[in-house]
Amino acid sequence: MELFLFTDLLILFAISIIILLVGYRFNIPPVVCFLLTGMLAGPHGLAFVQESKDVEMLAQLGIVLLLFGIGMEFSIKKLFQIRRLFFLGGSLQVGLTILFTYILTQLMQ
């Protein structure tokens, strides 16, 4: 099992490097390139990685690394500079999500 996972990781890394190079050429953000890699290499794309259990584990690892990368982009200093937009936008997003969910559940009853 571990050998298959290692092979899948090597395939994903190779595909992601190619897609990252192309994305860099066309100024596409790396996060979009990684998402495209997952779509292409996954079981519903070109099916280089077919085991759904392995795909789920790799996806969870990818989410952790994505959140880590996003966290590295923000500093307390930057958040303090955009605090008004941060709190207003965050509150608005949460409020609208709650409102939309409430309306949707009322319509479904």
From TrEMBL:
UniProt keyword annotations, A-Z: Membrane, Transmembrane, Transmembrane helix, Transport
Residue ranges of the TM segments: 6-24, 31-49, 55-74, 86-104
An annotated GO BP: proton transmembrane transport
Domain Cation/H+ exchanger transmembrane: 16-105
Compartments reported by the entry: Membrane
InterPro entries membership: Cation/H_exchanger_TM, Na+/solute_symporter_sf
Gene Ontology MF: a single term: antiporter activity
Top-level taxon of origin: Bacteria
Mode of membrane association: Multi-pass membrane protein
Sequence similarity: Belongs to the monovalent cation:proton antiporter 2 (CPA2) transporter (TC 2.A.37) family.
PANTHER family hit by this protein: SODIUM/HYDROGEN EXCHANGER FAMILY/TRKA DOMAIN PROTEIN (PTHR42751), SODIUM_GLUTAMATE SYMPORTER (PTHR42751:SF3)
Protein name listed in UniProt: Cation/H+ exchanger transmembrane domain-containing protein
Annotated source species: Candidatus Protochlamydia amoebophila
